[in-house]
Amino acid sequence: MLDLVFWAPVMAGGAVAGASSGVLGTFIVGMRIPFLGVCVAHAALAGAVFGGLAGLEGSALLLPALIGAVGTALVLGLADPRRARLDDNTVLSFLFSATMGLAFLGIGLHGVLGKSDHDVRALLWGSLTFCRWRDVAGMLGAALALAAYVRVCFKELQAILFSRELAEASGIRARAVWAGFLVLAAATLTVNFQTVGGLMIYSLISNPAAAAFQLTRGCARALGVSALFGAASGLGGFLIAAATDLPCGAVIVLTSSGLLVLSTAVARRSRGGDSPTCNRSR
Amino acid sequence: MTPAVLELRGVRVRVGRHELLDVGELRLAPGEMLGLMGPNGAGKTTLLRACLGEVRPSTGTIRVLGQEVTALRGAARAALRRRLGYVPQLLPPRSELPLTVREVVTMGRTARLGWGRRPGREDREVVDFWLDRLGLRALAGRRFHELSGGEQRKVMLARVMAQEPEVLLLDEPTANLDLGWREQLVATLDRVHRQTGLAALLVCHEPEVLPPACQRVVWLEAGRIAAVGSPESVLSADPAQRLYGAGLQVLHCQGRHAVVPGGGDA
Asked: Which of A155, A165, A264, A282 is the best mutation test for B, with the most CBs of B within 10 A?
């Protein structure tokens, strides 16, 4: 029998991380840059690695991790892909490879300098089962800041998702709004992945949003359903793992993947087997 | 002379050693629909983007609605752009995001509303008006990316009209449409222009796309203005004839124009 009092922060942490990742995913998948989660995770890891080399340890590593993640998000947000003649995903690939290289360089330097990289590695993989109320409070704070930003800038973000070029041409300060979103996204992801791990975050960003897109019409509905699916993946995955004594992270990832498969099947059935991607001529 | 809503003087745009645009003088009068024609790579889109402040000329001045575009930055430039209705040549890339037609048209109100404000009753009325006017009401709840190309083009026009612009900048609004949809959209552009009296700069390749409301055409070639005048005169002039070739002629009928094979006059 599950000890609900003991596991309550873990369940709350899984649900909050899932819900906030679902909200982020709506915009990140909507902008066709789902790779952002992995990129930011590696940037945070690089920050933490060099923080570790500078003598920081434990929760103090969060600060350099945040600096790495937010710095990378700012570069991505303020870069003008059209001026650089680069696609967003090309910029993302560059940032990902550069931050991954820095992270592994730093991990190698830990060995050369005879320092332990245990705390740093824990950041990459996360440890949801060790989540405590203090961690939940941090994740909730980041999630609320993200929710407040999305509420204030929802219509601008929606216009940017449709077309950043058109948003700018119609007088929306798209670069500033998008950079602000990416900074908050990076902060939220960094706070989340010290608990759930960089790899699980990726699936919690992509799968709930993609599942919500299959079942909904309208950006606001997709946002709500994606947050709900994210929370259900985090909480449901943990409960399934606890009941079956399987690894928690893997089950959460598989739960979110299962939701996407199920949603796609339901959407396909409700459309009578038509592909949702086709443009129908009338 | 009536002040122009859009005026270019001595504008040159260079990218590296390539000169993309070299326009001596170009004016768009209030209420006028001006066609901007020319072959691929003539500088039509560059000119439109320069008017939006997206491309910075190396010399010259661009005044739009009385403001010097090249001098504007940040909030001032955004404020001017709110008054311009821009329809791009390409439709936005397909996205999985399930945006509805109503949401896309409502985006036209976004920049007008400002930070933190949600669309109110007046905004919804404007959106409904343009959904009705362009025959899109039945599609309002559909996903934008599930519509046909012609329907999407109409939605883009409704979005820009919901913005309540003072000038329209239309970059090949009928690109990649079949004949039926092209004719529908040309008729819609003509009707909207006549009903609103908005000044419009219409970029297009083909004479068939010019609506009857378009009474003046500028022919661009290699970034320079090669001919200006009525559609009939410009399309019969040398630059256009060189493009269409010896075996083709331009017919003019009830304000519409078409390129057909043959050498005689219509």
From this structure: A155
